[in-house]
Amino acid sequence: MTAVRALVLNCTLKRSPATSSSQVLGQEVLDALADQGVDGEIVRVVDHDVRFGVSVDEGAGDGWPAIRAKLLAAQILIIATPIWLGQPSSVTKMVLERLDAELSETDDQGRLRTYGKVGGVAVVGNEDGAHHTIAEVQQALNEVGFTCPAAGATYWVGEALHKTDYVDARPKPDTTGRTTAALALNSAHLARLLAEQPYPPPGTRDAATAPARPR
Q: What is the pTM of this model?
């Protein structure tokens, strides 16, 4: 079985050791991926001095290059974000802006280095906006080269204007558990498929549609 590694980026606004619902759901995604034979880790982005910008390295002290190295070593990237004002967190948007630099980074065959990597989303909040947040993040991940699987997101939202967060939700909702399991299963499956059959280099003809060579 093809080895697959995952990276979960927790895009909470809270520095460690503050409790984070995004951390809880991100860990649940990682646990579900482990059930599929996928190893991985969570990085809380605000614990690192990630600079604003759209390059792979914003200079001395920038925390993004170390995170990017983990990303490049992984086959699955999960963005875990809270909802603020119905949108992904500002940290999530900063991460997506840093990923924009990958549009200029290619392998020795001219493919984006993100090609062949799977992108998923985990969202928490105590207000509406989960579908909108998922749509924004998935579109951005796809635009910079990630492939999004079927059922490629999981989320939990509490009742609007109430104080219950996902860390306090008991018992854990079965619906979130099912979507987390589906996200993990489909992400692991897709990552292995792409490892075994990578995207073709730009300018070539896909092998499935190329005419058979004469024998």
A: 0.93
